[in-house]
Amino acid sequence: MEYNEVDRICIIVFQLQQPLSQVSPHTNISLCSQDVKAYARLGPGHIGPLPKNEKQVSTANTKKNSKDIWCEEEVAEGSQYDDLTDPRPQPEYEIILKQSVGTEDLFLGLSRKDPSSMCCEAMLVKIKLPDTKAKEVVLDVKEKFLDLRTPKYKLGLHLPDPVHKNESKAQFFSEREELEVTLLMKRPMDFINMQ
């Protein structure tokens, strides 16, 4: 008896599903198109014993017995600064990481600094503010949030790393119509990375 290509594949799948003691190479199997569709739905997840249906209760999503609508952990940090009703557009901005590198770092490698972001000490935020004067800019820096407001633009920027808010510097370049804010980063492992 001759088999076409689909029949050969189905025979191989059938033989793989049977114990070796029951299958011989001369087993005559009659196949129909319904069997082919059933085998076509099988995938790698169907190999081996069926998974047990045990219900596991996640402790992360369980709510305490209260009438709270949400937990404090569910609210994103800095979301209290977001103002969704303000129609002013967000200006273009760019975040650049900076590190202080001397000749002993560049040529001799004495301070264990490398080009990675873990060795950066500061974050430079360049904000383009066309048709804006320096006296119109209102800037507020928090530990993880930068809030900038002008009559034409609004920027609420969640910072990728915590910063020292009191040691930040800002400079407005009127010829480029750009504000540069230098933020000194505050990370928990800085005492190791900056030695």
UniProtKB/TrEMBL annotation:
Matching InterPro entries: DNAAF6, HSP20-like_chaperone, PIH1D1/2/3_CS-like
A Pfam family: PIH1_CS
SUPFAM superfamilies, alphabetized: HSP20-like chaperones
A Gene Ontology biological process term: flagellated sperm motility
GO CC terms of this entry: cytoplasm
Family: Belongs to the PIH1 family.
Species whose genome carries this gene: Maylandia zebra
Domain PIH1D1/2/3 CS-like intervals: 90-184
Name of this protein: Dynein axonemal assembly factor 6
Single Gene Ontology MF annotation: dynein intermediate chain binding
